Every structure is written in C-alpha cells, then in structure tokens.
Amino acid sequence: MIDETSELGPLDPGRVNMMDPLEVQYWCRELRCSERQLEEAVRAAGDHIAAVRETLEGPVAEESKAGAPDLDSAFRNRDAARGTLGRSLRA
Fold first, then answer.
1. How far is residue 29 from each of residues 4, 45, 68, 86, 88, measured CA to CA in Å?
2. What is the C-alpha to C-alpha distance for residues 76 and 84, in angstroms, rounded to an integer?
3. How far apart are CA 23 and CA 84, in angstroms?
4. HEC string for the chain
5. Cβ–Cβ contacts within 10 Å for residue 56, how many?
6. What does the angle CA 26 – CA 47 – CA 9 come to, to the nearest 5 degrees?
7. Beta-bridge partners for 48
8. Residue 42: how many CB atoms within 10 A of its CB?
9. Could you tell me which residues belong to the region Disordered (predicted)?
10. pLDDT means over runs of 10, the chain (91 residues)
C-alpha cells in the first residue's frame, strides 16, 4: 500500500507548522531531524524554514564544511591533468 501522505508538502513551504502532525513529519523527513530537534529549532529560531534550517545545521555543519575537500581545486587539477583546463564543453 502506498503512503499517500508521503508526497504531501506543507501548506506554506516557507514556514514550519508544529501544530500539524503531517507537516511535522514532512519537515523532519526534509530536514533529516527528529521531531524533538525540529521543535527545539522552531522554539529557538521561529517558524521560518530558513532560520530553522540554519539552527539545525549550526556550527557542526560549518565545521564539516571547513573539513570538506575543495571541489573547485579538485576539478581544476583534474582538468589540468587531462589538458582540458579552460576549454568550453560546447566547443
């Protein structure tokens, strides 16, 4: 049986409505967090999704970004090794 609620989104995609259990499920799935984490983020930042997302990501996300590889450099190095640096894909 297909879960018909799995494809439903929030009525206002810019805000988290903690009073609607289906929206809470949606945002927990979308933001990959628990209901408790979502509730705490909304309490701390308000219900605007950008603020909630930023609160959930917090300093841990910034730390992981700092340790992440520099993909631009990796692609430039790859392209230089292939001899394709600066060439257009359409050319």
1. 15, 19, 24, 40, 39
2. 9
3. 48
4. CCCHHHHCCCCCCCECCCCCHHHHHHHHHHHCCCHHHHHHHHHHHCCEHHHHHHHHHHHHHHHHHHCCCCHHHHHHHHHHHHCCCCCCCCC
5. 20
6. 25
7. 15
8. 22
9. 56-91
10. 64 95 96 96 96 88 49 57 55 47
pLDDT of residue 63: 45
The two tokens of residue 51 are: 């603020």
Alpha carbon 58 to its chain centroid, in Å, reads 12
Encoded tokens for 68: 């992440």
Euclidean distance between CA atoms 37 and 57, whole angstroms? 11
Residues constituting the chain: 91
Question: So where are the chain's domains?
Answer: 4-66
